[in-house]
Amino acid sequence: MRAVRLVHSSDLHVEDAGPHAPPRQAAAGIAGLAAVLDTARAVRADLVLLAGDTFDHARVGDAMLSRATALIAAASLPVVLLPGNHDAALPDCLFRRAGLLGLPQVTVLGVNAGTALFDDLGLEIWGRAHEGADALDPLGPPPPRRTRWQVAVAHGHYVPAEEWRWQSHRAWRIADEALRAARADYVALGHWDRAVRVGPPEVEAHYSGSPDMAGTVQLVTLAPEGVAVRRERLRIAEGGCP
């Protein structure tokens, strides 16, 4: 079985320019999406995984949604998205309005599929979508393993065991026990702007960080000899930045 390569990013916060988002800030979101997709093509990734908050809010305008959908369609790569707290999987969610569900290579977890299954890669990706402002366990129990590789994706705030009691005010907490219980080969996390590995040493759990703050994506290689994770600097193809 050949190695599987995936690019993991999160927290792009694609949005329109407006009172709460100056033009430069708004441009960073769509430029970040373009850069993530360009980088995935450059490293010959098999797929892209976006771990929440691809969009900044449910009111993103149709023109910006169309730009984002066009970029994803042009990438010609499978893309798996997890709705986060900013772009929750509401009945009228913007993933539907954007037309993303009409793209055969796109899976929005919790919206058009419960998991993303790639039989040709021996890979299944699962995660729990945010469905509103209510608190939830960002991971939840894993599905039965039916592929060689299983990747979990979650959007929330990792809290180490020694800080759990005094960080009870935080929503969407992720504990060491939840990371272990996922039993995944890789746990793709979103919600933090910085790229960092977290959790128990035996678990490959990583925040990708946002493209504009981290300047990188996580390049994950799933191979028979083991799982390798490295930060890959974002690239922009010629003419690739909108």
From TrEMBL:
Residues in Calcineurin-like phosphoesterase domain copies: 5-191
Signal peptide: none
Gene3D superfamilies associated with the record: 3.60.21.10
Coiled coil (UniProt feature): none
SUPFAM superfamilies for this protein: Metallo-dependent phosphatases
GO MF annotations in UniProt: hydrolase activity
InterPro entries linked: Calcineurin-like_PHP (IPR004843), DNA_Repair-Maintenance_Comp (IPR050535), Metallo-depent_PP-like (IPR029052)
Record's protein name: Calcineurin-like phosphoesterase domain-containing protein
Annotated source species: Falsiroseomonas bella
